Amino acid sequence: MPPVKSPPPPAPASSRRNLLLAAGGAVLVVGAVIVASLVFRGGDGDASETTATIPGGAGALFAGIPQDGAVLGSPEAEVTMIQFEDLQCPVCKTYQAEGLPGIVEEYVRPGRVKLRFAGLAFIGPDSEKALLHVIAAGEQGKLWQFADTLYANQGDENSGWVTNELLEGVSGELALDYDTLAADADSTAVLDQANAMATEAEEREVPGTPWFYVQVGDGEPYEVRPGSFAIEEFREILDDALAG
Amino acid sequence: MSDRTLRLCVAVTTLFGVAVAGYLTYVHYRPDSLICTGGGGCETVQESAYADLFGVPVALLGLGAYLTVLALVAWDTELARTLAAAVALGGLAFAGYLVALQAFVIDAWCVWCLVNDLAIVPLLAVLTVWRALVPRTPV
After folding, report:
1. How many other CB atoms are found less than 10 A from the CB of residue A17?
2. How far is CA A196 from CA A193, A199, B21, B49, B105, in A?
């Protein structure tokens, strides 16, 4: 007769009690930590409390550099870096703060490289509203300053942070005519520019933002992938392009 | 399911957790390694005010919890099993809080966070509790 395998004995009551006590204790500790973190946080996560903080000297980084619509830098510059970005993208904001200033000072201001803004609006309605106003600011020669200031005021995705009040405040700070800006943002010409940027991104199969291309002269732009936003990474890319 | 099989399942699930929490910890410290993609979400969640708890990245806390469970699985005493289940249940409570934050406060979804919070952590909780209730296999 084959040996009968007996079922395992049930867990002793002491094991169950210990487990219950340990589990209850762990859940209580986690609950206490959550409550404490919420209390000490003081409700700073409320997107509706976001207020526009427009710094004095907004967009000063670009002062004295020629701009033509979406292009920043000397028209004579042989190398163009194309930047696909979404004004609601937090990583683009990081690039704007940590990567762009070094590139502008080292390559754009001396006239060696020019930058072309290619805005996308895939994150949501705030992206679209911001993008149309940024392109409209380009009609008044301050696209880059406007984008820079919006990034500095970036709110949570699609929280409604791109308010008319914010746009008017940024316009005032940059000495733009807000009525003209608002009218341009509503125009077919600006919408066509936004659509052209989206079409270009689609054709190039841009997977997300920020995403970069480098173009030498009239050649076909090629994709570049900096490992970080450190200037050393861009130096390697741009020096290589400049060397031909 | 035998204790040995359960132990293996707990270890494998924990290793998945280590991988996901490790990745999220990595991108927390290297945000520029991310790009914003069509779904959005990950960057928003990772960069939200809730990504840290008292200055410690939530992802790093998760990684610590998984490594603790892994150490407890290796220790493999009665106490270690109970503690592993307790850590996993505490993690389950915390995962529920994180999912609620994404749904109602941050209003953005991080796919890797959801994989962790809705799949790995609940599975680990079930397995560790189950194991704590199954008598140990004599060595």
Report:
1. 10
2. 5, 5, 40, 36, 35
Q: How far is B81 from chain A (nearest CA, A)?
A: 9
Distances (CA, A) of B60 to B54, B68, B133: 12, 12, 29
Nearest residue to B87 via CA among B70, B103, B106 = B70
Q: Are A54 and A169 in contact (CB under 8 A)?
A: yes
Residue A193 to chain B, least CA–CA distance (Å)? 21
Please answer whether residues B37 and A84 qualify as being in contact, where contact means their C-beta atoms are separated by less than 8 angstroms: no
Decide if B48 and A45 are in contact by the 8 Å CB cutoff. Answer: yes
Q: Is the dihedral of CA A35, A37, A39, A44 positive or negative?
A: negative
Counting every residue written for chain A, the total comes to 244
Q: CA of A227, closest CA in chain B: separation in Å? A: 7
CB-nearest partner of B134 from A8, A33, A211: A8
Contact A30 B94 (CB under 8 A): yes
Tens digits of residue pLDDT in A138-176:
999 999 999 999 999 998 888 899 999 999 999 999 999
- Which residues, in sequence order, are CB contacts of B10 under 8 Å at separation 6+? B69, B73, B84, B124, B127, B128, B131
Q: Is A131 on the interface with B (CB under 8 A)?
A: no
Closest CA to A151 of A92, A64, A69: A92
B86 contacts A23? CB cut-off 8 A: yes
Taking the Cβ of residue A234 and every Cβ of chain B, the question of whether any pair is shorter than 8 Å is answered with no
CB contact (8 A) between residue A11 and residue B54: no
Q: Is A169 on the interface with B (CB under 8 A)?
A: no
Q: Do B30 and A15 touch (CB under 8 A)?
A: no
Crossing angle of the two packed helices A125-139 and A178-185, in degrees rounded to 10: 120
Tens digit of each residue's pLDDT (9 = 90 or more) over A168-219 = 999 999 999 999 999 999 999 999 999 999 999 999 999 889 999 999 999 9
ipTM over 0.85: no
What does the CA dihedral A67, A233, B26, B74 come to, rounded to 10 degrees?
A: 170
